[in-house]
Amino acid sequence: MNKNDWQKEFTGSITVTDKEGIIIYMNDKAVSTFEKYGGDKLIGTNVLDCHPEPSKSKLIELMLNKSTNVYTIEKNGIKKLIYQAPWFENNEFSGIVELSLEIPFEMPHFIRTD
Question: Which residue in 29, 68, 104, 105 is a FRET match for 91, CA 20 to 30 A apart?
Answer without folding.
Answer: 29
